[in-house]
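Exercise 7.
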Amino acid sequence: MKIAGGTACATMLTVGALYIQTAPTPQFLNLTERSKIGFVNHSSHTSHKYLPETMVGGVAMFDYNNDGLLDLFFVNGAELKDPMSASILPDKSNPKYWNRLYRNNGDGTFTDVTEKAGLKGEGYGMGVAAADYDNDGFTDLYVTAVGRNTLYHNNGDGTFTDVTKSASVQAGGWSAGAMFVDYDRDGLLDLFVSRYLTWDFSKDIFCGQTKPGFRAYCHPDQFPPIGHLLFHNEGHGRFRDVSEESGIAKSPGKGLGVAFNDYDRDGWPDILVANDSVAQQLFHNLKNGN
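Solution. The predicted structure, written as tokens, is:
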């Protein structure tokens, strides 16, 4: 048997008069160079040791042009000044800091279509979620970042439009993970955002030894937790922040990853947040919006 150019080996075990064939061992080959995916994540390390420099960007696999092939979207960082001032934001103008969309050509190769798609992005990126939030048949993107998140509407012609403001999902703070989930089962995908810390460039503190060259990245324990966000899909391309009324904001954390499933099999999706340096959080869906 051949798998992606490699060989799968099956093992035959003899137990008495019985012959048991074990599952073949999967073989993997590194096809990055052949695929023409040249993405490199840039976290813009500085001597100031800003905490976001320790993070890497997210990635999504989704079929943005409905051709039956999974495409790739990578989230990137941004250029940071050393030191940053409150009036200077992370700079994404240099192409090496752009987020990247690669179209699957169907022959094992990908084409960078970032500029055409309008997905260069802004700010210091963190995570991404992909889903068709408006039920128009095309998958949209939500990108989290330090400061402001971005919702990109898929126009169905290979391009995306930033609809963050009109959709009211800017969020704010340091957002990390995100996912679309229909938590109230009304047929519209809602949006959950896990936030990391109460931190921004103006609140940065000094950690490490107070002598040249010995500054260190701060431990997350140095910063307070922050509430996560839940946006209810109101239809017609708009969302409403229900973080407080749903009870989500009452349990702040230091969220990174997020997942959903119906863990108690009551027919309603529940939410799990993977936190950093504090206990994980499991939010049980009470079936009434809370």
